[in-house]
Design a protein that fits this description.
This protein is an alpha/beta fold. The protein contains 24 helices and 26 strands.
């Protein structure tokens, strides 16, 4: 795991210190990291320098492949030996160079003074040991304490990070925790020895926006309580605006910009930073295509000379092919751009508010909402129960009400967004619509045909007209088959196309989604995440369906790649008249594709209506909380606003609450909410909400829920 000292150059680059900092906890200078690929050592991080002051949070930002995670792993000396090595620079922590320490000295620092949490807690926690045992092992590795004392400390830190009933849950295994609770357990393990520096590598990327808001609030409060510093690695600039004091932007293995957070958002000095900001869905103008950064991050073995961003930069000129160093632009900011003095790049003043949108290469209006006419998809009273069995005889001990009586329609050429947290039943609805699983009750009709009545060949023929796009394009493509083979397979099975006829159609499909037909012979791993999702869309379009069910199609992608895929889906809908059932947990993404939105909670729809009406004036407390959880791409507004952080976990669908299912987490809950299911209430704006606030007590009569004072502790916090 460690690096051979003799392979590392120790020359440092010019100072990149924030002059306003009172001290340096972590000082990285001239860091270089290489990985072995194809028998050659390829540099993936070059000349990276940054500081983290005590109590400060530094955000390390960039797309996948830019070197963020590698840089953070190098700080901890976790670069895998044999496959990677630190080739240059120094990493000083509390005055000592971590790259010079022997294994035992390094072990005493890692996990004690410096701790790290990772993106996916389930792969970081050992499924064979209880959560408390794993935290106890981390404690006893650095503290001379008994098992009982370590367990007591584990309970203390689990309680500190908000795990309910920590004294009991300490003896549970990781699989019994939800995703948000597992991440809290990882944070508890990292904090067990009171580190002075916490390195967080994409700790919220895989989480729902509501759980993300909880985790960010937790990290912020822990930082305020303990005074620890954080190195926060992320691709989401909305999260950066929420939690970071300073930002270091990486591109293609180099730092291209550093600045205080508010200064960077107000006026970025590097075109790449501007592109990242502009591509955020939260900053886009409703009804228009999202701004994209064309192209992709270059491969480590194919780094261009000079400015590495120039092939994707709309400001590139002659001279950008020459090397450029970081230059100071005042107030602790640095930039690696030859033209930074003459460019007036877009900040929050032009991206949000009255000054107009960020300039876009494809800034055209979306197609107007179609005349729905006869619905393409009609879902009525749809239900799905999953039996829970146990014991030797596998007796049924209960039933999970995953979907509990929902109604939904999608018109021809229309997009309906289905949103909600994990566990709300969205993906189950997707599988029911496509008849991948059989419903327990209700009907699903496509083009007037009841899918429940179809069998065998008739069902197979109907499925050709409706296809699915999954969240993870890599796992939905055969890694051993070329993309041409994967896209062409449905044509062979359903249309009987072979040879040149099939290959010609495959080429047309790849061209349609923006992937060159000449790449048809390549394997999925040779493409970026965004390209793989485009290929998955091409495969879904092979049989010319009229309905695409998109299950979290962009949640696994970088924000810049998200914009490309969202624009692609919008363009295909306009050209082909496609209808989408778009499933997601992030309303800022759903807003830009959807004509209507349905909000789902614990198996039921709680609010539905026109997308902009739901987005701007939510009438259900749950919708209000989902919208509040979306980070604002403006540090000043983000930190000043009142954010609603939902408390607790979603109840188990095995035993849902009586009455209103959201009442256990609702700040406005009344006595009636415990006993009576809320009826549907049609508002004057055209939305429908299922909430007693509109029909009893201090009625809102269809007004936004924010106009009512909460009846109990609201979970509202000032970010």
């Amino acid at each position: 795991m460690t690096t051979q000292p003799e392979t590392r150059a120790t020359s440092a680059t010019a100072a990149t210190v924030d002059p306003t900092a009172t001290g340096r906890l972590l000082t990285v200078r001239g860091l270089g990291v290489s990985f072995l690929s194809g028998g050659h050592w390829q540099p993936v991080v070059e000349d990276v320098s940054f500081d983290v002051a005590p109590g400060q949070t530094l955000g390390l930002v960039g797309e996948s492949g830019c070197g963020k995670t590698v840089s953070s792993l190098a700080v901890m000396r976790l670069i895998p030996a044999g496959r990677g090595r630190i080739t240059a620079g120094s990493v000083e922590f509390e005055g000592q160079d971590l790259l010079e320490l022997d294994a035992e000295s390094l072990r005493r620092v890692r996990g004690d003074r410096i701790a790290m949490i990772f993106q996916e807690p389930m792969t970081s926690l050992n499924p064979a040991f209880t959560v408390g045992a794993q935290i106890g092992l981390a404690i006893r590795a650095h503290r001379d304490v008994s098992k009982a004392a370590a367990r007591a400390r584990a309970v203390e830190v689990l309680d500190r990070v908000g795990i309910p009933d920590a004294g009991r849950r300490v003896d549970d295994y990781p699989h019994t925790f939800s995703g948000g609770m597992r991440q809290r357990a990882m944070i508890a393990m990292a904090l067990a020895c009171d580190p002075t520096l916490l390195i967080a590598d994409e700790p919220t990327t895989a989480l729902d926006v509501t759980v993300q808001a909880q985790i960010l609030e937790l990290l912020r409060s822990l930082k305020d309580e303990t005074g620890m510093a954080m190195l926060f690695v992320t691709h989401d600039l909305g999260v950066v605006a929420d939690i970071c004091d300073r930002v270091a932007v990486m591109y293609a293995g180099q730092l291209v910009e550093q600045a205080p957070t508010e200064a960077l958002f107000a006026r970025p000095h590097h075109p790449y930073t501007e592109g990242l900001l502009a591509s955020m869905p939260q900053r886009a103008v409703p009804g228009r295509s999202l701004t994209v950064i064309p192209g992709r991050v270059p491969h480590p073995g194919q780094m261009p000379a000079g400015c590495r961003f120039r092939a994707r930069c709309r400001y590139s000129v002659d001279g950008c092919e020459q090397a450029i160093d970081l230059a100071s632009v005042g107030s602790g900011a640095l930039v690696r751009c030859r033209r930074h003095l003459e460019l007036a790049l877009s900040g929050i003043g032009t991206a949000v508010g009255s000054a107009g949108p960020v300039p876009s290469a494809d800034d055209r209006p979306r197609a107007p909402r179609p005349d729905r006419g006869v619905p393409l998809l009609v879902v009525r009273d749809l239900r799905k129960d999953f039996p829970v069995t146990g014991g030797v005889l596998r007796l049924v001990r209960g039933r999970v009400n995953a979907v509990d009586g929902i109604d939904l329609t999608v018109g021809v050429g229309e997009t309906v967004g289905l949103v909600g947290e994990s566990g709300s039943g969205k993906s189950t609805v997707a599988r029911l619509v496509l008849r991948l699983i059989a419903p327990s009750g209700g009907t699903v009709a496509v083009n007037g045909q009841d899918l429940g009545s179809l069998r065998g060949r008739e069902l197979r023929r109907a499925r050709a007209g409706m296809q699915m796009v999954f969240q993870d394009p890599y796992s939905s493509l055969d890694p051993h088959s070329s993309i041409g083979r994967s896209v062409g397979e449905p044509l062979e099975i359903h249309r009987g196309l072979r040879g040149s006829e099939r290959d010609q159609r495959v080429g047309q499909l790849l061209e349609m989604v923006g992937v060159g037909p000449h790449l048809a012979g390549r394997l999925p791993h040779e493409f970026s995440g965004g390209q793989r999702q485009r290929i998955a869309v091409a495969r879904a379009l092979a049989l010319e369906p009229k309905l695409l069910v998109c299950d979290e199609p962009v949640s696994a992608l970088d924000v810049s790649t998200q914009s490309q895929v969202i624009n692609l889906l919008a363009d295909l809908q306009e050209r082909l008249g496609l209808a989408y059932l778009l499933i997601a947990h992030d309303l800022s993404v759903v807003r830009h594709l959807s004509h209507r939105i349905a909000v789902m909670y614990l198996g039921r729809i709680v609010e539905s209506g026109p997308a902009e009406k739901v987005y701007r004036s939510p009438t259900h407390p749950y919708t209000e909380a989902l919208l509040s959880a979306i980070p604002i791409a403006d540090p000043a507004r983000q930190r000043a606003r009142q954010r609603i952080v939902l408390r607790g976990e979603m109840p188990s669908p095995l035993d849902p609450p009586t009455g209103c299912r959201f009442r256990t987490r609702c700040a406005y809950a009344m006595d009636i909410c415990k006993e009576v299911d809320p009826p549907a209430f049609a508002t004057a704006s055209g939305t429908t909400t299922w909430c007693h606030l509109h029909t009893s007590g201090p009625a809102l009569a269809g007004a936004p829920v924010s106009s009512l004072a909460p009846t109990q502790g609201s979970g509202r916090v000032r970010s």
